[in-house]
Design a protein that fits this description.
The complex is a heterodimer of chains A (about 220) and B (about 120). Helices cover about 40% and strands about 20% of the residues of chain A. Chain A has about 220 residues and is α/β, with parallel strands linked by helices. Chain B has two helices and six strands. Classes of the chains: A alpha/beta (about 220), B alpha+beta (about 120). Chains A and B meet through strand 1, helix 1, helix 6 and helix 7 of A and helix 1 and strand 6 of B.
């Protein structure tokens, strides 16, 4: 028997491609957000509501990741976004390679921001760097307030957490202060915003956050 | 359930190593997987068995070293082992704990049989 040392991260190849994506995004001066959440937490509704507020002001691209259908892409196109749908055909996450494959078909130079809507799943996407600037986790009040500690990996990696569906707080046993504290414990560097994408509460602060991040990215590239 | 994708990435790394040992038979793959890495060793072994069935790596064994989650308190500096990522310092009750290990997803080593391999090319 012969032992052969390897000593490599299994994600090396993904991380290498992600670094290439990141260079492409930075060269184009475009801000990129990777949005991760469970199915049904409101990722696409947040994008629709965001587009209603910024589509006239900035150029928005969306990369939609879903197991199947173009339904989400149709929804954001109707609100003025460009972009592309990726169907993973059963895959539970997007990978850096999937993003690299579609970048050639996108006009990044004239875009201000790219939203990557990951496949609805709170576990698997957290293992895959896509080359984004901001990894963002969306958690809605209907999912229950125990989720940060039950699915800690994504909260460890995220630099922004959005607590969505706050309009339903009065009807639900969701302790939003506890959730905020637990996220802060897991990741003191994670910014936290509270909003209702459907009703509009808190959306102004989110739009201001986007504007500031875009300005920061354009200033640095 | 991304064990299948992780398995495929791992096999690409194995492929590139095995290319340098033509004719050798893969016996074991030694892995380090953190307990907080969101990978289930059993599912990874199942995925590996399915993916390699009928191919040159069929029957090879995954030897998984599960790395414990170790957190270090940012306030008192003590390190502790945790069963899951749910933090608090048992020493000073601080809630500010950084992760020192337990998120690994590494391929360390292969064990191959060069004498008793497949057909030499």
């Amino acid at each position: 028997m012969t032992k052969v040392d390897i000593e490599r991260k299994i994600q090396d190849e993904n991380d290498r491609i992600a670094a290439g994506n990141r260079r492409t995004f930075t060269d184009a001066g475009v801000l990129v957000l990777n949005i991760i959440s469970s199915p049904g937490s409101g990722k696409t509704t947040l994008l629709e509501s965001t587009l209603d507020r910024i589509a006239g002001e900035m150029n928005v691209l969306v990369i939609e990741g879903d197991v199947s259908t173009e339904r989400d892409m149709d929804r954001v196109r109707a609100r003025g976004a460009g972009g592309i749908q990726i169907n993973t055909g059963g895959g539970c996450h997007l990978s850096a390679g999937m993003i690299a494959e579609v970048l050639g078909g996108l006009d990044l130079e004239s875009a201000d921001i790219v939203f990557i809507e990951n496949v609805g799943n709170l576990i698997c996407p957290s293992t895959y760097d896509l080359g984004e600037d901001v990894r963002m986790v969306l958690l809605s009040t209907t999912e229950g307030d125990d989720k940060p500690m039950k699915y800690p990996a994504i909260f460890l990696e995220a630099s922004l957490a959005i607590l969505n569906k706050i309009d339903l707080l009065e009807h639900l046993p969701f302790d939003i202060e506890k959730v905020q504290k637990e996220i802060e414990v897991l990741n003191p560097n994670c910014e936290i915003l509270r909003l209702s994408a459907l009703k509009g509460d808190g959306m102004d602060a989110w739009i201001d956050w986007i504007r500031a991040k875009i300005a920061e990215k354009k200033g640095s590239s | 359930m991304h064990e299948l994708s992780i398995c495929q990435s791992m096999i690409r790394i194995v492929d590139s190593t095995m290319e340098q040992h033509p004719g050798a038979k893969l016996q074991k793959i030694f892995l380090e997987i953190g307990k907080g890495a969101t990978i289930e060793p059993i599912l990874l072994k199942d995925a590996f068995a399915i993916v390699t069935s009928g191919g040159p790596y069929e029957g090879a064994e995954l030897v998984i070293d599960e790395i414990p989650i170790v957190g270090k308190c940012r306030d008192c500096g003590e390190s502790f082992r945790y069963e899951e990522i749910a933090f608090g310092c048992p020493n000073c009750d601080s809630r500010s704990v950084s992760i020192e290990s337990g998120l690994e997803l590494n391929i360390k080593q292969l064990e191959i049989d060069e004498a008793n391999g497949g057909t030499k090319t």
